[in-house]
Design goal:
The complex is a heterodimer of chains A (235) and B (247). Chain A is mostly helical. Chain A has one domain (2-227): Orthogonal Bundle (MetI-like fold), CATH 1.10.3720.10. Helix content of chain A is 77%, strand content 0%. The N and C termini of chain A lie far apart (44 Å). Chain B is of the alpha/beta class and 247 residues long. Chain B has a single domain (3-242), classed as 3-Layer(aba) Sandwich (Rossmann fold). Chain B is 33% helix and 24% strand. In chain B, the strands form two sheets. In chain B, strands 7-8-9-4-10-11 form a six-stranded mixed sheet, sandwiched between helices. In chain B, strands 1, 2, 3, 5 and 6 form a five-stranded antiparallel sheet that branches. Chain B starts with a strand and ends in an 11-residue tail after the last helix. Classes of the chains: A mainly alpha (235), B alpha/beta (247). The interface between A and B is medium-sized, with 17 and 21 residues.
């Protein structure tokens, strides 16, 4: 039991000492996760809206695939990304393996279905009604798209938070394609896994606390300014 | 704007829900009048209205707007409002202003039109409220004010007074009659309220199980010998005073 308590004490000391290595790992984690969430948003939001509001014959099958991809194991995505980026793979010439770019690619593949699935689900229900209402009021294609984005703002933000949460907390994909190289591709989750394996629990706990704090702050900001007005207290 | 349907049918998953190829073919809605569509649940009223409003496509047949086919392009100056309207998550004022904003009308004109509608529909006091948080009646009034804001030529209303108290029903009917008279607005309204249908409609169309049993002047429906129509009227009209006067 003592080692857990000591672990927490050590964790706070590490956090407030602003250790340069810890800071570097935190910043790289944020950079990789924010970048992948951004790319996933650019791809996932328009496609999610488009799939949601369009009626076509294979829609149920497409939605089943989409929901399956939402829960795809990160380690499998890491494995497939590595196969493509490895020196002998189809994209080997770009020498992306074991770089932050490879980690961003893997996480983008991981997060895109999450963003797309959430946006698709909401677009299929309320999005379709918004499109019809826009049409009855004379909105053209451009105005309808703007209207949809405005109306689905809350859902898009929830999708981003969920996607970011999935990116920053996953370990399998970044471990495989990044390689956990000190000072280059080491991120919070791979750092925690490594220290746990080495028995350095205090360092692992410290990084765990930082990870949870960042997640809490990100969610709080989005909740306060965007999601809050959807879920506000009603008496 | 005159609206006419010719040989109209709609089939969902091999079930024909609307078939206007025999009786009431063509079905004609004259410009500048209020036309009621009545009939029991599941009779195809909303399907017919949505096809005419260009919201769903027909399986066969055609809808003509002032004699021109709407198969390729439904005119933009027609609008539709349902009994469960979709309001946007912005203020009541902004909802009503939306059709004017996308038409790039000057700000002063938007302000003036919206203010007038807010006063007419007695919703000025809630103009800054989020439209998603309104009561059923307030939502309905906001949706109709929004639909009227850009002075459309045709207004389709699907049970517009379903959630509204008698005072506001009167207010809404007055607003419709005023626009019919002053702007020559064509209004096509689905209602389950027969006394309302006789009060404001010039013509009535009676649908049953996807087919049309009557289309003509409102008071003519009373004289129909069709037993289905007869039963429907007997069941829905409570007072003799609800009956229309022959004109």
């Amino acid at each position: 039991m003592d080692y857990i308590i000591n672990g927490f004490a050590e964790a706070f000391r590490l956090i407030f000492s602003f250790d340069p290595e810890i800071m570097e790992i935190v910043f790289l984690s944020l950079f990789v996760s924010f970048s992948s969430t951004l790319y996933a948003t650019i791809i996932g939001v328009p496609f999610g809206i488009l799939l949601g509001i369009t009626n076509f014959r294979g829609k149920p099958i497409v939605s089943r695939f989409l929901y399956t991809f939402m829960s795809f194991p990160p380690v499998v995505i890491g494995l497939f990304t590595a196969l493509f980026l490895a020196r002998a793979g189809p994209f080997g010439q770009f020498q992306l393996m074991y770089t932050p770019s490879a980690m961003i690619i893997a996480q983008t593949i991981l997060v895109t279905p999450v963003v797309m699935g959430i946006v698709f689900n909401q677009s299929s229900t309320s999005g379709y009604e918004v499109v019809l209402t826009g049409k009855t009021l004379g909105a053209g294609k451009g105005n309808t798209l703007l209207l949809l984005i405005a109306e689905l703002k809350g859902t898009i933000m929830i999708a981003l938070v969920t996607g970011f949460g999935r990116a920053i907390s996953e370990v399998g994909a970044v471990m495989i394609v990044g390689g956990n190289i000190r000072g280059y591709t080491r991120v919070m989750t791979t750092f925690i896994a490594m220290n746990n394996n080495m028995g350095q629990y205090s360092t692992a706990i410290a990084m765990g606390i930082i990870l949870m704090t960042i997640s809490f702050i990100t969610n709080s900001i989005l909740y306060k300014y965007i999601i809050g007005d959807i879920n506000e207290y009603r008496d | 704007m005159n609206i006419e349907t010719k040989n109209l049918t709609k089939t969902y998953k091999e079930t024909t829900v609307l078939n206007l190829t025999h009786q009431c073919n063509p079905l004609f809605f004259e410009s500048g009048k209020i036309h009621g569509i009545i009939g029991p649940n599941g009779s195809g009223k909303t399907t017919l209205m949505k096809i005419m409003a260009g919201l769903i496509s027909q399986s066969s047949g055609d809808v003509l707007y002032d004699g021109r086919s709407g198969n390729s392009d439904v005119p933009k100056d027609i609008t539709y409002s349902s009994h469960r309207p979709t309001l946007f998550s912005r203020t009541v004022f902004e909802n009503i202003a939306y059709p004017l904003k996308i038409r790039k009308r000057p700000k002063a004109e938007i302000q003036s039109i919206v203010t007038e509608l807010l006063d007419e529909f007695e919703i000025s006091d809630i103009q800054t409220h989020n439209a998603k948080k309104l009561s059923g009646g307030e939502s309905q009034k906001t949706a109709i004010a929004r639909a009227l804001s850009f002075s459309p030529k045709v207004l389709f209303l699907d049970e517009p007074t379903a959630n509204i108290d008698p005072k506001n029903v009167k207010l809404m009917e007055a607003a419709l009659l005023k626009r019919k008279k002053s702007q020559g607005l064509t209004i096509i309204i689905i209602t389950h309220n027969l006394s309302q249908a006789f009060r404001i409609c010039d013509t009535l169309t009676f649908l049953n199980q996807g087919t049309c049993l009557y289309s003509g002047l409102a008071h003519g429906l009373i004289e129909s010998a069709d037993p289905i129509i007869h039963d429907f009227i007997s069941f829905n009209l409570l007072k003799k005073s609800d009956l229309p006067l022959k004109s």
